[in-house]
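FW: tagging you since you asked about this chain on Friday. Here's the raw sequence from the shared folder, copied in full. Didn't touch anything.
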Amino acid sequence: MQIFGTKKCKASQKAERWLKERNISFQLIDITQKAMSPRELDSVAAAAGGYDKLIDQDSALYKKKGFAWMEYDAREELLENPGLMRTPVIRRPPNQAIVGFDPAALQKLTQES
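HL: got it, structure written out here
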């Protein structure tokens, strides 16, 4: 299990706490230190329902760069600007992932084999 997030993200902290409370091992990956590889991003986007689902439209970077008013390639922008990603992204390799902290979805993700 992997959590892609940031140390400052409250939702990432909740996901981390949720997994720790249930003694579920995970790897925390701070996207400000190490961005997703193109392959990881493709896998997560496929599981999440597309690249657009990964874009955090409430992020300061999204607003600052004016993405709401322009056409852009979501995959390319996420690779170049990891700060655009909605966090946490909780990934269970090889092909399962959820975006955001959702206890019910996380429970289901951890119970599936």
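FW: The chain has a mean pLDDT of 92.
HL: agreed, and The helical segments are 10-21, 38-48, 60-64, 74-80, 103-111.
FW: great, closing this out.
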